Amino acid sequence: MAILYHHPLCPHSRFIRLVGTEMGLEPELVEERSWERRQDFMLLNPAGTTPVLIEGDGAVVPGATIIAEYLDETRGAALGDRRLMPADASERVEVRRLVDWFNGKFFDEVSGYLVTEKIYRRFMPTDAGGGPPDMNAIRAARTNVRHHLKYIGYLSATRNWLAGDRMTTADLAAAAHMSCVDYLGDVPWTEDENAKLWYARVKSRPAFRALLADRIPGMAPSAHYADLDF
Amino acid sequence: MAILYHHPLCPHSRFIRLVGTEMGLEPELVEERSWERRQDFMLLNPAGTTPVLIEGDGAVVPGATIIAEYLDETRGAALGDRRLMPADASERVEVRRLVDWFNGKFFDEVSGYLVTEKIYRRFMPTDAGGGPPDMNAIRAARTNVRHHLKYIGYLSATRNWLAGDRMTTADLAAAAHMSCVDYLGDVPWTEDENAKLWYARVKSRPAFRALLADRIPGMAPSAHYADLDF
Fold first, then answer.
1. Where along chain B do the CATH 3.40.30.10 domains lie?
2. ipTM of predicted complex
């Protein structure tokens, strides 16, 4: 059986949980606190980041974007016309651009700050950066998320899904990151109706159910977090 | 004819120049100063980063990792057994892990600091961050590069090339980033003989010649920069 080393509020891990479930892969989930830099985990992924997928045969696949490419290559064709990566090279460029946008830029500007400051710091020892959240980082994230929300609204209004007329890994990457921000109550949904409608569509997919059931001890999600009709 | 928007000392641009040349693609090079956030360039790549490839038919391919995947998909097969991406899914994982390592982690810890502080800041207007370099950032990069040099030495000694027994995009990504650091004289080559031997091998490829001829006005390269027998 496959294993996924993840953290419940790690947006990159959530992306792979979504991609995996859409493909019928239900790995055993093992929680990893990447800030502990556990020796055995560092051997699986020298970069020290979640998620890492271990295949049933022991093959190690580290890193969200890399796992998504790997899953498409090994299991994507079986999805037929529900495949999460388009066949056309130019369309694949747009999907990859947006996956990179959310896994990279959005994480650096929004979800990384919020998850680190509001969640991870509660569990870190003081000498590893634990303690109260840095409010400047949280404020920056709350400002930045508004621009990204508009961009999602613009893309979904002009294209139906973020990268084109079908749902792709780009939608799952975006929704995974947004779901973490939404857990923390930091998405100003009222500012963009199109973005909200897009998120409601992704959120209603069966693959999303497990994410909506996640709970972090001592930190309840926002009131509408698991509400499909928010 | 294809166009590549790039900057001569942008490590991500250099990576694509290497990959392109290995594939026989010789795009027209157009220098872009990404920090100017030029409107027409932002339309090509909303992330605002170099490189961006424009195909002869006008198709836009933004971002180093994405361009490399695209070039492999559209032109890779023609290389036969010199193809830069392996056919096996697990081997592709390792190549992508290392491309991500250098384009992401190495850039964040080493090449990004050095190029920004020593080069870009000289050309930026003061209100966009121009001015004298931040010596703390440079010192951090010089410390970090030593760990990466050891990692390159370890990989090349145990595998011949970084990701396995053949040269792949992983070697070109690593060498592109290292070449920028080497231009600035900040690679402590004497600390790892294996890494040095690996770099000498990549550097001697014909694709590397154009990079070794690059000169930034007012900033000469290190004495051994273009020396194949350094």
1. 3-82
2. 0.96
pLDDT tens for residues A117-133?
999 999 998 888 888 99
CB contacts of B89 in chain A (<8 Å) are: 70, 73-74
Tens digit of pLDDT for each residue in B3-45?
999 999 999 999 999 999 999 999 999 999 999 999 999 999 9
Please check whether residue B101 touches A, CB under 8 A: yes
Nearest CA in chain B to A69: B93
**B-chain residues within 8 Å CB-CB of A97?**
47, 62-63, 66
Residue B87 touches chain A, beta carbons under 8 Å: no
Q: To which H or E segment does residue A184 belong?
A: none
Q: Which fold has domain B89-209?
A: Glutathione S-transferase Yfyf (Class Pi); Chain A, domain 2 (1.20.1050)
Domain A89-213 has CATH 3.90.1310.10: no
Across the A:B interface, residue pairs with CB atoms under 8 Å apart total 59
* Subunit contact B92:A100, Cβ cutoff 8 A: no
* CA dihedral of A37, A43, A47, A48, whole degrees rounded to 10: -30
Q: Is A139 on the interface with B (CB under 8 A)?
A: no
CB B95 within 8 A of CB B86: yes
Q: Which residues contact B210 (CB under 8 A, 6 or more apart)?
A: B17, B21
CATH hierarchy code of domain A3-82: 3.40.30.10
Q: In chain B, list all ranges with CATH 1.20.1050.10.
A: 89-209
The answer to whether B4 and B27 have CB atoms below 8 angstroms apart is yes
Question: What confidence category does residue B197 fall into, taking pLDDT thresholds of 50, 70 and 90?
Answer: very high
